[in-house]
Specification:
This protein is mostly helical. It is elongated.
């Protein structure tokens, strides 16, 4: 997540510099050929303008869908924050008098669940963008915590060696950690440490965590539909290629009868670059938001949120040695 007031113009230029070079070449080649006498390369601008209208609609549709996925992901983690706080004080007040060690154990396992979930959500998928050169280069400006350490090392802070070995042997570690919570809760109920109402309250919180985990996994594991994504890419590429050809004749005759008539043709390069850059960057903005857990600068800050939850819950137990909050690096926080 970008925590500053806005992305600066310089950041946008750095982020799209590879695209700018390619678009400049695509604008320069037809202009140079036209100048050298290949005037047949000039196309009517009207069909290209119609294509541009279609591209604008489909890119706008994609960006709306991308924002919806991002906002849903943020709502999911907002619910996890609220439910974790409720889970913490309900569990503490229900069990602390009879078995404070079990409260501590279940708190630690909840931190482990948050950790396992964020690591699972940061696992790369074939359709995500962080493996491309453009995103990988920009990622050097900030830290992706899940790439700086391993899940094993993080879970060691919260689980016993026996439970750690058991959890690491499972495919979906977050699910099994929540299943362990349910098992411990059932044992506490069977031993009379909590009553029917308390068991129901705490169990409802576990169900909510499982529900939110499933919602996050749905966004992670189901990409923006490939048919919409592909047609957007193809139409955008066609439009970018044809724009410089459609403006050749217009800029060539722009200076007729003036001192600049031999120079206005070259305006085709910067203006074509500007038009195509706008469309391409709009598409890139949507693409940067469509996978909200991949580790991009526009991600939902699940690591920061997980740390905030841990701090709040440790504070409920009056612990003094609280972990530090995660702060932005170059205005980016994950």
């Amino acid at each position: 997540m970008h925590s500053g007031k806005r992305f600066s113009a310089r950041e946008f230029i750095v982020w799209t510099k590879r695209s700018i070079v390619c678009l400049a070449i695509l604008s320069a080649v037809p202009t140079i050929l036209y100048f050298l006498g290949c005037t047949f390369l000039s196309f009517p601008w009207q069909p290209i303008a119609i294509m541009g209208t279609a591209v604008a609609f489909i890119v706008g549709f994609k960006n709306n869908a991308s924002y919806s996925r991002l906002w849903e992901a943020r709502q999911i983690y907002g619910a996890i924050i609220n439910d974790s706080r409720s889970f913490g004080y309900i569990l503490r007040d229900a069990l602390s008098a009879k078995n404070p060690n079990k409260v501590k154990e279940m708190f630690l396992r909840h931190y482990a669940w948050l950790t396992a979930l964020r690591f699972q959500l940061r696992d790369p998928r074939a359709w995500e963008n962080m493996m491309t050169a453009q995103y990988d280069e920009y990622a050097k400006k900030y830290d992706i915590p899940e790439r700086l350490t391993t899940l094993d090392n993080e879970l060691k802070k919260y689980l016993t060696e026996t439970e750690l070995e058991y959890i690491l042997g499972k495919k979906n570690r977050a699910t099994q950690l929540m299943a362990s919570q349910s098992k411990i809760l059932s044992e506490a109920y069977a031993e009379g440490e909590i009553n029917d109402f308390q068991w129901t309250q705490i169990n409802q919180q576990l169900v909510k965590f499982t529900d939110n985990q499933g919602k996050a996994e749905r966004i992670k594991n189901f990409p923006y539909p490939r048919n919409f994504s592909s047609i957007t890419t193809y139409l955008l590429l066609l439009f970018i290629v044809f724009v410089p050809f459609g403006l050749l004749k217009e800029f060539d005759k722009l200076g007729d009868g003036t001192f600049f008539e031999d120079f206005t043709l070259w305006f085709n390069i910067p203006f074509s670059l500007l038009v195509t850059w706008c469309f391409h960057t709009l598409d890139s903005v949507g693409e940067a938001s469509v996978n909200p857990f991949e580790g991009s600068p526009n991600d939902v800050p699940i690591t920061q949120i997980s740390r905030t939850i841990e701090i709040d819950m440790r504070d409920m137990l009056d612990e003094s040695d609280l972990p530090p909050a995660i702060v932005p690096k170059n205005n980016i926080v994950l």
